[in-house]
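Researcher: Next sequence.
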Amino acid sequence: MKPINREYLRSVLFGIENSLISTVGLIAGISVGVDNKRVVILGASVAIVIEAVAMGVGEYLSDDAVQELDKIKRHPENPLLSGLLMMVSGSLAGLIPLAPVIVLDYPGSLYFSVLFALIGLFILGYTKGKILRTSPWRGGLKILIVGGLATTLGLVVGLIFRV
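Model: Next structure:
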């Protein structure tokens, strides 16, 4: 029997943990907020698909960045700091597409939410390229395209389960 690959095990455990926590939180929040089973199903379906895609994309893009960083020089890791950084950055990044929803009415809020998120993704990739001394434009476009595909998938799921 072959030994278990540590990275693959970590990815699977993180994916299960993150999905369970975020999905149950979303379902609880929507259930309390509205008394409509279809809305809860829609929200949970979109979240499950998009979070799974986002986690897979995030794992790929972060592994890609680590491989580039290994070519330069890798810093020692601190798991607590890494977790805090992921939590804070994820929370702050989530405010970017949420802000238009809070301020504007539908459908304008959706357009600006998607636009701001895509701009943020491009800036993230561009900045990553600058930090890692790779092509910033290639990095920006790579994350923009992958994030755009995930956004498109979310819209498709929403249309399929439209209330």
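Model: The chain has five helices and no strands. Residues 51 and 71 are 30 Å apart (CA to CA).
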